[in-house]
UniProtKB/TrEMBL annotation:
It comes from Nesterenkonia cremea. One of its GO terms (cellular component) is cytosol. Pfam families: Glyco_hydro_1. This is 6-phospho-beta-glucosidase. It comes from the Bacteria.
Amino acid sequence: MTNFPHDFLWGGATAANQIEGAYDQGGKGLSIQDVLPQGALFPPVEQPTPDNLKLEAIDFYHRYAEDIALFAEMGFSAYRFSIAWSRIFPQGDEESPNEEGLAFYDRVLDELEKHGIEPVVTISHYETPLHLAREYDGWTDRRMIGFFERYAQVLFERYGSRVRYWLTFNEINAILHMPLQAGGILTPKDQLRSQDLYQAIHHELVASARVTRLAHQMMPEAQVGCMIIAMPTYPLSPRPDDVLAALGAEQANYAFGDVHCRGEYPGYFLRVLREQGVELEITDDDRQDLRNTVDFVSFSYYMSACETADESQRIPGRGNVIGGVPNPHLEASEWGWQIDPVGLRIALNDYWDRWQKPLFIVENGLGAQDRLVEVDGVMTVEDDYRIAYLNDHLYQVGQALEDGVDVLGYTSWGCIDLISASTAQISKRYGFIYVDRNEDGSGTFQRYRKKSFHWYKETIAAGGANLTG
């Protein structure tokens, strides 16, 4: 049995574009998500269309008080959410912010404070204002750094006394695989030059560092973290070439954390640039800016993968969105995401040893097709599969704590059912709370507590003492 620290942050996580809805209310402008009706891997359309479930999502915009009360009932000490950039700056490049958007998040913070829940705020979570994507091709343009700084400064001025934990970019390393989703880049991936992609990455890293410096200047008590996808990659065999292939895959993700934590580009990353003929435009100010390192590292963890140098065995897994090949020793979810609780302990130890920064697991969970049933006169979901998944992963967090890893907290992804980022489905449910909304857009939006709701409540109350290995 592991005793989690008394100040361990237990909670859940969501993103604005996947829960809020109200895409055209409160002065909000369009974001890239409003024209991505089919998820992360499909091209955008010209205008929002009725089949885009994100336009209404789960209507958190109008139901936030009810939802936060349910989070409080579970005992959350933290709630990670994102602010929609296009609610604050509808176009993204205006001089002045939209007061209605700012006021909405004031109300959200009011509810969190009422229930004693610590806000963990993501500044940019896969929802670049559409105007910035169309006018500037997103982060390929250096001017984006200034727009992002202005946006962040407004947030710090408005909410700085109310928010201690800030994340700059969600899953910043995803830009390598999903340039539109993570970088607001409208140029199709198969037409995007390596020069432009890596320059966009550089612009995001500089913007993240500048905003980190700004936060430390304006809010000395605040903690700023980067946020990356963690996907431990194992060699498919003990062959040295496979081990090297796995290392290369790991380094593609390490690079983003290395810059955030060490303040400069690592040598292996510079070699990748040289071999691809990329010459980054880096100013002396950029190099100085990158020295503004983060206070902690946050990450998402859903799966691990394998890598091999043998092209004949490089058969991609159905759920491996960011590469790798399936592990023959692991089972997978309904969406093909391989389930590896031990991989979470491996990632925690690896990151702690590498960066010596506190770690924060801000996404982890199981997407599944839940079925609403009546039990003893109460509508619920008998999601024992989710309980097993979360128990096994949290048990490994406990093991990492015993290993000496400094873990700030754990916020389960999609603590209330939301619209999937990768598939734009609501049938891929993650939550402890079932939302009555269907793939065809029908439903009452009624909320129901799943069986996992009560299990997570007990786990938080017990400080993890009920977890079994």
